[in-house]
C-alpha cells in the first residue's frame, strides 16, 4: 500500500509515517498543507491519503477542502481524515461525496496502533471508518429524520455499520448471532426507505442517511 500523509505537525507527520512503515505500508509523500497534498496525489497516485482537517494558512478546513478536491479529481480515492476535535459538518461533508473509501478519526486514535491500522486498511480497501465519538454526537443532534424510527438496537447496529464493521464483526461486538444482525440490518434498510439487501451499496446509503440525519 502506498500512502500520502498531509499533516502540518512534524511530530505527528513523522509518527504516522513510522507507524505505517512498521506495518509494511509505504509513505510516498509527507506534506504540510493542502496544496502539497494535491501535488503529491497528482504525482504519486497513492492508494490512500491520511489528511489533517486543519492546516496552514488559516487552520480551519484547508485539509478537508484539499481532500474533497482530491476525490473530485480522482473519484474513489480513499481518504482517511484526522481531526483534533469532533467536527460534525466536516464528517458529513466528506461523506456527502460518497461514503466508499472514506474515514474520519480523532487524532487520539492514532495512539491505538491496532485501531488506527485497521482503519487505514479498511478505508484503503474501499470501506468506511467513522470515529464513534462523531457517531455519538450525530446521534444526539438528530431530529425528525427516518433514523428516529429505528429502535435503540437498530441505531446501535447502524452506528457500528458507520464505523465500517461487517455483519459478523457487529455480531461479535454485540454478542448476538449473525442472523440477528442480518434481521436488524434488513429492518434498518426498510425503515430508511432502502430495498433490503446486504450489498455494500445499500450499507453505504444507510450510513449516509444516518450521518446526514
UniProtKB/TrEMBL annotation:
The modification 4-aspartylphosphate is found at residue 52. Transmembrane segments: none annotated. Keywords: DNA-binding, Phosphoprotein, Transcription, Transcription regulation. Residues 2-122 form the Response regulatory domain. It holds the Pfam family Response_reg. Residues 143-213 form the HTH luxR-type domain. Gene3D superfamilies: 3.40.50.2300. InterPro entries: CheY-like_superfamily (IPR011006), NreC/VraR/RcsB-like_REC (IPR058245), Sig_transdc_resp-reg_C-effctor (IPR016032), Sig_transdc_resp-reg_receiver (IPR001789), Tscrpt_reg_LuxR_C (IPR000792), WalR-like (IPR039420). PANTHER family: TRANSCRIPTIONAL REGULATORY PROTEIN NARL-RELATED, TWO-COMPONENT RESPONSE REGULATOR. This is Response regulator. It comes from Lentzea rhizosphaerae.
